[in-house]
């Protein structure tokens, strides 16, 4: 029986595992977190007295179904929780578990590595008290904590309203929800958004609920900066009518939608193309998630589609893998899943327009704004490097000269902004700026991890 | 099509090419430097950054010392320090056999006027208390230094440009041919340059030009894997190198510890890729902890490599072509090009402008490959098995 | 102007809204004793008791994590024995010693 390995314990990874188990395989499921569910359906620790159904709201049913599905699979797969995959080379995963290095060989690999927030730098965004929007949700589910005593939800993301509402229900004091995309952009995107009317309706519902609760909601505002000396004290914005406002707060949940975690896909050999709708480099796959020989990508780690698309694409990837092993799969089921994934991802494309990545904000950033949190590289240093004689016009060269993207996170967070800043500084199309390449380790690994593993 | 006329075309914008262009324009000669990508992007930009004088090949000392003198004046020369620091270099031995090897290296270096300190076990622990217990002895050379390779080639190219050199990036030389007593250089962008002399400093890609003029060298490509830790409090000043080649490390004042170690891995100059296999990272980590146990909890955050040209006797090719007057080769630096780079540029400028140089370069002639060349004993343990002459550079 | 009363009402950045039941743990942050409950992440412990996780190696500005899910690497906190851990993915354990400032770590090591 071939060694099939799935990386990622979110909806895509779990659904892929279930299809493979039904087909009589016993896949390895590697999960970096201690609990399955990914970030969206993250399972709180038992000791936390959290009413997860209340928190998940309309998604509670799906949450419960996913976790019971996993419970039914648990003994029929080789489950490796708390295991980081830090490298992939010659069909072997290099892992780190409890600080000890190990390897997992595979014949076929499904990567379902999920997503993180996409972030545009802003003056003051490194101050204590500024967290990603996704992170604000995670800390509530995982630790039962709010990110602050008085919170601004800032950015352009459908999650902005969902997260604010979850916080509101948990008793948070919300100073404002500041949406940086103008309402007109949402109208323009309505055709793609109509691809998933239920999700659209839910978005409208979140917004209305916030409004009813008396929480100020600003549309089309331009963030000017986050103020504070040693921690967040307020957010400065220009509202849609051009008035400057200071919103006092001690925490900011900040984000511009999601971006796939594609580091492992790259190490496994996936190729990338620039997607003009998301303005991101995304791995190339076919409709079923094939990204190369014996390599399949699923879920938000392949293309942002949300939890439902993740489940369907996880199933698709597993079917594709089985078909490639010479086991015919139901064409009807494949067509159904492909349609579902395509529809949900088209909806996300609409969301990417309705909640736009703030390109204008990149151009307007003051030079002293930090672009790279890890290495404290400023926007001005990047612009100066690009505009110098023989200055680099490609992000990997800019990284070599400025250190932007060289730190612990390997450009995960500064990468998308770096592309915009470089393209802006040399007045070239964004795709020409390229994308930061990755090498293993994709996350830091301690030197002593290698000691247990003699050659 | 654009046609230009200049006195010298330099092919390749690595460290060698940019320094050569710099010294030529400094002496008043017109230069066009043509680079297939961007300057300093290959091994010139991603090497370890060591300016080591200890332990060099005996025949290389005059060139190395000339080069170090240029490094020591780099800021005055090009207007940029490029993080040059005279950090010193500590060569460490694990046992008596290695200590004897250090002693041999030390005598050669002293013969060329370098000051080498012999350091016993106790003094080693006293002066550098973060070193591991298992070390037998060391030699220390205070004049050895480090610089930031990511910055140097670009800074030298800019300095050359300010003095009048023309730097052409994203342009691949497709043909170099004889044109009377000079040359015509054709490129893939339509640029054609007529010139009196050509410098072949195309690194791992240099053989094509040499072979067009009826000479060759058994060059192969490899990538030296390198690793870096998160920043930790600064305390390691010198570069530290195990004489068995298993590991070399240094700490930059920002706090990151950079380390590398043999064996080097195969690289693909056609695909332009030199990936670092995870097993190399793990063995590098083990070797580093053995010599510097205080780093055992440090996190490795990044690895990289570049494509370098190697020759089986571990010596470069430097000098005028044997077949074609006016063609000058400088390639195959076997991972030692960073330190000698400025010296090589100065020597090539001597050869081109004066027709001769006072710096002895006879050991580096391309003619040595007409006969069977002595294969360096380093080849066996510094490279992955199949990397040696089989994996030919393009 | 920022509302000072709101900010001083809590000693920390985070506000616990869901109780956690379990074994009590004792840790120290920069030498001061704090309590935690089994299951708390180090990040939660640090930010329920203060507003900083670490000081940047370059220039020393305060940082308190960012992504809260193990991706941004901006919450590596010092354990004083020259060991560092990612606070958001590391569970608190009894007796842990946390330092938000690498200079203290230096003296300690």
Automatic annotation (TrEMBL), chain A:
Keywords: Oxidoreductase. GO terms for molecular function: oxidoreductase activity. Residues 3-311 form the FAD/NAD(P)-binding domain. Residues 372-423 form the BFD-like [2Fe-2S]-binding domain. InterPro entries: BFD-like_2Fe2S-bd_dom (IPR007419), BFD-like_2Fe2S-bd_dom_sf (IPR041854), FAD/NAD-bd_sf (IPR036188), FAD/NAD-binding_dom (IPR023753), Metab_Enz_Cyan_OpOx_G3PDH (IPR051691), Opine_Oxase_asu/HCN_bsu (IPR017224). It holds the Pfam family Fer2_BFD. This is (2Fe-2S)-binding protein.
UniProtKB/TrEMBL annotation, chain B:
Residues 7-351 form the FAD dependent oxidoreductase domain. GO terms for molecular function: oxidoreductase activity. Keywords: Oxidoreductase. It holds the Pfam family DAO. It comes from Microvirga vignae. It comes from the Bacteria. This is FAD-dependent oxidoreductase. GO terms for cellular component: cytoplasm.
UniProtKB/TrEMBL annotation, chain C:
Keywords: Oxidoreductase. Gene3D superfamilies: 2Fe-2S iron-sulphur cluster binding domain, sarcosine oxidase, alpha subunit, N-terminal domain. GO terms for molecular function: iron-sulfur cluster binding; oxidoreductase activity. Signal peptide: none annotated. Pfam families: Fer2_4. This is NAD(FAD)-dependent dehydrogenase. The lineage of its organism: Bacteria, Pseudomonadati, Pseudomonadota, Alphaproteobacteria, Hyphomicrobiales.
């Amino acid at each position: 029986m071939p060694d099939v390995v799935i990386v990622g314990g979110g909806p895509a990874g779990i659904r892929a595992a279930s299809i493979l188990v039904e087909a009589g395989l016993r896949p390895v499921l590697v999960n970096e977190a201690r609990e399955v569910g990914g970030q969206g359906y993250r399972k709180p620790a038992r000791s936390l007295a959290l009413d997860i159904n209340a928190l998940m709201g309309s998604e509670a049913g799906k949450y419960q179904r996913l976790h019971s599905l996993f419970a039914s699979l648990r003994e029929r797969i080789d489950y490796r929780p708390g295991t980081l995959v830090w490298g992939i080379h010659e069909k072997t995963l290099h892992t780190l578990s409890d600080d000890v290095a190990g390897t997992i060989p595979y014949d076929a690999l499904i990567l379902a590595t999920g997503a993180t927030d996409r972030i545009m730098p802003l003056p003051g965004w490194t101050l204590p008290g500024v967290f990603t929007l996704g992170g604000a949700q995670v800390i509530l589910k995982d630790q039962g904590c709010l990110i602050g005593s008085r919170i601004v939800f800032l950015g352009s993301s459908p999650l902005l309203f969902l997260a604010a509402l979850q916080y509101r229900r948990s008793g948070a004091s919300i100073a404002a929800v500041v949406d940086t995309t103008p309402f007109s952009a949402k109208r323009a995107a309505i055709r793609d958004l109509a691809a998933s009317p239920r999700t659209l309706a839910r978005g409208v519902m979140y917004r209305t609920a916030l409004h009813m609760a008396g929480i100020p909601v600003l549309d089309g505002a331009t963030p000017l900066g986050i103020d504070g000396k040693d921690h967040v004290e307020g957010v400065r914005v220009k509202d849609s009518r051009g008035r400057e406002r200071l919103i006092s707060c001690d925490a900011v949940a900040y984000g511009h939608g999601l971006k796939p975690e594609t580091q492992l896909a790259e190490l496994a050999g996936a190729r990338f193309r620039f997607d003009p709708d998301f303005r991101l480099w995304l791995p190339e796959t076919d409709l079923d998630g094939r990204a190369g020989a014996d390599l399949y990508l699923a879920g938000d780690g392949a293309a942002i589609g949300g939890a439902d698309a993740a489940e369907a694409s996880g199933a698709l990837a597993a079917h594709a893998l089985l078909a490639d092993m010479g086991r015919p799969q139901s064409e009807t089921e494949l067509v159904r899943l492909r349609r579902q994934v395509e529809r949900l991802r088209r909806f996300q494309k609409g969301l990417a327009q309705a909640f736009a990545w703030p390109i204008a904000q990149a151009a307007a950033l003051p030079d002293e704004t930090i672009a790279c949190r890890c290495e404290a590289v400023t926007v001005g240093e990047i612009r100066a490097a690009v505009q110098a004689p023989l200055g680099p016009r490609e992000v990997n060269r800019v990284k070599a000269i400025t250190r932007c993207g060289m730190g612990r996170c390997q450009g995960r967070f500064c990468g998308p902004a770096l592309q915009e800043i470089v393209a802006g500084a040399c007045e070239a199309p964004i795709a020409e700026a390229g994308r930061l390449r990755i090498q293993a380790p994709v996350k830091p690994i301690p030197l002593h991890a290698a000691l247990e593993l003699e050659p | 099509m654009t046609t230009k006329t200049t006195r010298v075309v330099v092919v390749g914008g690595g460290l060698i090419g940019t320094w050569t262009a710099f010294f030529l324009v400094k002496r008043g000669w017109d230069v066009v430097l043509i680079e297939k990508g961007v300057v300093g992007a290959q091994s010139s930009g991603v090497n370890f950054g060591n300016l080591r004088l200890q332990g060099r090949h005996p025949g290389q000392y005059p060139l190395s010392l000339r080069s170090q003198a240029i490094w020591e004046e780099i800021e005055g020369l090009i207007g940029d320090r490029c993080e040059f620091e005279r950090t010193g270099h500590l060569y460490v031995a694990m046992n008596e056999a290695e200590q004897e090897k250090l002693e041999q290296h030390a005598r050669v270096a002293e013969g060329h006027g370098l000051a080498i300190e012999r350091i016993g076990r106790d003094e080693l622990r006293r002066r550098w208390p973060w070193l591991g217990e298992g070390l037998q002895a060391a030699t220390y050379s205070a004049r050895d230094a480090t610089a930031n390779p990511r910055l140097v080639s670009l800074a030298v190219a800019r300095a050359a440009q300010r003095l009048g050199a023309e730097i052409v990036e994203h342009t691949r030389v497709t043909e170099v041919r004889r044109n009377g007593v000079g040359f015509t250089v054709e490129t893939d962008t339509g640029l054609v340059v007529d010139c009196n002399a050509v410098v072949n400093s195309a690194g791992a890609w240099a053989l094509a030009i040499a072979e067009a003029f009826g000479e060759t060298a058994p060059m192969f490509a490899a990538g030296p894997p390198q690793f870096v830790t998160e920043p930790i409090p600064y305390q390691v000043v010198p570069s530290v190198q195990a004489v068995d080649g298993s590991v070399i490390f240094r700490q930059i004042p920002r706090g990151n510890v950079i380390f590398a170690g043999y064996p080097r891995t195969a690289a693909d100059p056609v695909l332009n890729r030199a990936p670092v296999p995870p097993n190399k990272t793990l063995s590098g980590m083990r070797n580093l902890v053995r010599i510097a146990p205080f780093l055992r909890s440090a996190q490795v955050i990044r690895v990289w490599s570049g494509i370098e040209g190697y020759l089986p006797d571990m010596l470069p090719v430097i000098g005028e072509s044997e077949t074609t007057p006016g063609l000058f080769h400088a390639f195959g630096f076997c991972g030692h090009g960073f330190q000698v780079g400025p010296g090589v540029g100065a020597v090539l400028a001597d050869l081109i402008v004066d027709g001769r140089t006072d710096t002895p370069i006879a050991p580096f002639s391309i003619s040595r490959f007409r006969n069977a060349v002595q294969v360096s004993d380093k080849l066996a343990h510094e490279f992955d098995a199949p990397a040696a002459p089989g994996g030919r550079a393009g | 102007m920022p509302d000072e009363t709101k900010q001083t009402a809590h000693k920390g950045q985070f506000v616990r809204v869901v109780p956690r039941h379990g074994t009590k743990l004792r840790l120290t942050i920069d030498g001061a004793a704090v309590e935690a409950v089994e299951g708390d992440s180090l990040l939660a412990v640090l930010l329920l008791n203060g507003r900083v996780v670490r000081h940047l190696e370059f220039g020393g500005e305060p940082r308190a994590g960012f992504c809260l899910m193990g991706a941004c690497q901006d919450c590596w906190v010092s354990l004083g024995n020259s060991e560092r851990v990612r606070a958001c993915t590391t569970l608190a354990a009894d007796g842990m010693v946390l330092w938000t400032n690498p200079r203290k770590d230096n003296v300690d090591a």
